[in-house]
Specification:
The longest helix has 12 residues. The chain has one domain. The chain is an alpha+beta fold.
């Protein structure tokens, strides 16, 4: 059973679970009357780090039937905010491939448990925009 789950994860292809920063590298923007950062002293982290995030995604992502039937593969790039309390907010698709894959990425982000350690800048918790690429491969 676990072996089949691992194969399934590989088919979705490591999903490029390396959470990377938005471009430009050190941008800031205004968000709800506060500064929203894309890079801070300590970036937000999922409980148990990247491994914990990978486990969450591999257990919860489902290759959309429509995409599988059409042989659709590619990378969906999503963006979301981790606020000062570690809450996931405002997920959006920056670059999608359609056929249900974009919606699936939004679903798994919206359903993420509040297991994030917030970003820290100058010793204070701050909201940070995160970017997540998810690769779909058959």
């Amino acid at each position: 059973m676990i072996f089949n789950k691992l194969l399934s994860v590989r088919r979705i292809s490591y999903m490029a679970l390396f959470v990377f920063l938005s471009s430009p590298m050190f941008s800031q923007e205004e968000w709800q009357g506060r500064t929203l950062y894309s890079a801070v002293d300590t970036m937000p982290s999922f409980e148990n780090g990247e491994r914990g995030l990978m486990e969450y995604l591999s257990k919860n992502i489902k290759y959309p039937t429509k995409a599988r039937e059409k042989g659709i593969m590619g990378t969906v790039i999503a963006s979301y905010i981790i606020d000062e309390n570690g809450q996931v907010l405002e997920p959006v698709i920056k670059s999608g491939i359609g056929y249900g894959c974009d919606e699936e990425v939004l679903r798994i982000i919206r359903e993420m448990p509040e297991k994030w350690n917030p970003g820290i800048k100058n010793g204070k918790r701050v909201p940070v925009r995160m970017t997540l690429p998810v690769k779909f491969r058959l």
